Model the fold of this input.
Amino acid sequence: MPRILIQNGRVIDPSQAMDRVTNLLVEDGKIAAYDATPTEQDEIIDAAGKIVAPGLIDMHVHLREPGREEDERIATGTAAALAGGFSSVACCPNTDPPIDSQGTVEFIQHQAALADNCNVFVIACVSKNREGKELAEIGQLVEAGAVAVSDDGAPVFDAELMRRAFEYCLMFDIPVANHAEILELTKHGVMHEGTTSLVLGLGGIPAAAEDVMVSRDIALAEATGGRLHIMHVSSGGSTHVIRRAKRRGVRVTAEVTPHHFTLTDECLRTFDSNFKMNPPLRGQGHVDACIEALQDGTIDVIATDHAPHAKEKKMQELDRAPFGIVGLETALGLVVTRLVEPGHLDWSTALAKLTINPARVLGIPKGTLAVGADADVTIIDPEARWTVEPAEFRSKSTNTPFAGWELKGRAAVVIVGGRVKFKRG
Ligand SMILES: [Zn+2]
Ligand SMILES: [Zn+2]
Done:
């Protein structure tokens, strides 16, 4: 493995409170030194004018394999991750079969190794077959490498099962990640319940469906001492409950997606199914609350909920089209354009939510450029202006609401374990 010297970049590493221009040396797959001087054998990467960050981590990705290879494969999803600047992803268990056995965890690890793109961490099921009835063999899943459990795609609706999941996961110090939705409140829902859904005559998904579940989960985490991670927060009500819980010392973390801090339910006026996701796009007040929660640390993580669907599925009418959009290849541009550029977050805070914070939630030794750490590095061109062209996506699916958007900020180089895995031509 050659030594790589990343020269003259602005290194921003929130894990070390570092923000300075320096030369970073990568050797034997590890971060070797700062302020290094080049030797003749070094592979030099000129990072002048660029930001050198710990490799980005997306802790909420649907890779679809096994079972839905028409939407995405592990090889294509991880290629999309690299193009988006991510050196690590955590994949969700709503595959077919679901990730509720050691064999399926190992299958994913094997496919990820074959693809040889980014690191793939596995989030396994809370319940057997994701049915919400019986706990999965969590001990065995952790032994196989699972870093968290979730029944995402669906909530853990049974409160007793959720309580036992918290208690059981305490033994392994892993989080239970929940898709917070009270299903009784969201039947036939297509979009956020509000004025726009009334005007359009579309079934509503009330914010309360999320708020009630977040409140339940926080109460159960508090009662058991368990670790709760709330996926894709979209409502102002959730942010308030999470903020208060954190102040009391409840072990709760939360994530928000780029679409939830960027778009509103007004977008559904186009009847374009690429604006249909669950939780749904909500009103501007909810968007503002999510941004405020990102600012004050109530929301720890930015994750994409990358949810690829083949064209023929998403092309159906709004009522029948599946929920979800792809996100890996637009996330960084949206973070820069919608959060950093307008001054909502500074670079260090934004990058923390894409690096060290998700690493801590998952308990993985990533998200840092400390000397001795794995050399996962993302070099970002903060000035790059580009247009979202779904036809150029590495993902197998192109279901994005951001086609044609002009964004600023893009990954230039991604290094994984000391090897350059992606370089924008
Ligand atoms: Zn979900
Ligand atoms: Zn999801």
Observations:
- The CA atoms of residues 308 and 381 lie 26 Å apart.
- The radius of gyration is 20 Å.
- The first strand starts at residue 4 and ends at 13.
- The mean pLDDT is 98.
